[in-house]
């Protein structure tokens, strides 16, 4: 099997979701650390301008957005228990709850106690650059940067529900962890990673016991790889990863068409390339990757269909 590389940075909550899932699935993976803020020149050379973290690389195939990455990991591991057929709808609903909980977590980190920790970590100038970077990330999409009012409406009620659900079972949907657990873990990890606001999670004993059980899984068989090595791996690869399902022609587009793909929520930078495949769950396009004048060769970018739009390049 082609080696798995995860492009991420340590404090990234969505990266933590994937890191923990890689540990749970016992997959060996290369840790490619990328910058926390733009510019990310090595990363965007591969992704064609897509900037959200993390991305998963297998040879010269790049999988973007956590929603797709976790399903790639599920297939690689063969763990059907991650999305049990009889609980697929529940898993999907709880994934969406995890996304809302992540948005609710953001303002918590900028409450005075949390902000003080961020200043210690980044400095006032660094924090200002970080906030400007994230303001740009949330510009142009259909999801606005969340405010403290949203956080207060969502955070406590969600944690109360989860604590009650975990009172009589070790994991959110029963005796074994599913993708729902990993989707709900990382927003809580994000808040607990900031000592200034960590206490906001403490009044939920069943939830905290669950959090410790999941955290104990760890990140598995991880080794370090550089961004330059990731480029070399893409350039040297001589094959593509298999594509799932038949081509869906319902969008009236064909392989080889010049297209753009972009997220609809936030981080909406559009990526240009040649359409390769449209499956039930993914959009795949191909583009020539270059870095500082060096041709790395063609790469394929895979995006989830849900949450992304595909358009003819001529419309932009």
From TrEMBL:
Instruction: Name any one GO molecular function.
Output: transferase activity
Keywords on record: Transferase
Keyword Transferase recorded: yes
Q: What is the protein name stated in its UniProt record?
A: Glutathione S-transferase
List the lineage, top down.
Answer: Bacteria, Pseudomonadati, Pseudomonadota, Gammaproteobacteria, Oceanospirillales
């Amino acid at each position: 099997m082609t080696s798995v590389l995860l492009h991420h940075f340590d404090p990234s909550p969505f990266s933590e979701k994937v890191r923990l899932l890689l540990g749970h699935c016992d997959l060996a993976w290369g840790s490619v650390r990328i910058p926390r803020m733009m510019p990310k020149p090595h990363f965007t050379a591969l992704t064609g301008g897509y900037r959200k973290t993390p991305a998963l690389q297998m040879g010269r195939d790049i999988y973007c957005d956590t929603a797709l990455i976790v399903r790639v990991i599920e297939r690689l591991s063969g763990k059907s228990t991650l999305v049990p057929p009889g609980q697929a709808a529940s898993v999907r609903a709880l994934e969406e709850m995890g996304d809302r909980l992540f948005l609710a977590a953001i303002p918590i980190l900028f409450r005075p106690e949390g902000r003080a920790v961020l200043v210690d970590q980044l400095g006032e100038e660094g924090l200002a650059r970080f906030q400007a970077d994230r303001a740009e990330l949330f510009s142009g999409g259909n999801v606005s940067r969340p405010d403290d009012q949203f956080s207060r409406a969502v955070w406590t009620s969600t944690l109360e529900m989860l604590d009650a659900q975990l009172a009589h079972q070790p994991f959110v949907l029963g005796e074994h962890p599913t993708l729902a657990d990993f989707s709900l873990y990382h927003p809580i990890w994000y808040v607990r990673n900031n000592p200034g606001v960590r206490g906001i999670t403490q009044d939920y004993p069943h939830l905290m016991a669950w959090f410790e059980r999941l955290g104990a899984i760890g990140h598995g068989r991880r080794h370090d790889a550089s961004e330059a090595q990731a480029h070399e791996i893409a350039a040297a690869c001589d094959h593509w990863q298999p594509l799932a399902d038949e081509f869906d022609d319902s969008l009236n587009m064909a392989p080889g068409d010049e297209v753009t793909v972009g997220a609809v929520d936030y981080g909406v930078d559009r990526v240009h390339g040649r359409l390769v495949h449209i499956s039930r769950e993914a959009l795949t396009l191909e583009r020539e990757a270059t870095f500082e004048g060096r041709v790395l060769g063609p790469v394929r970018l895979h995006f989830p269909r849900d949450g992304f739009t595909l358009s003819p390049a001529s419309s932009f």
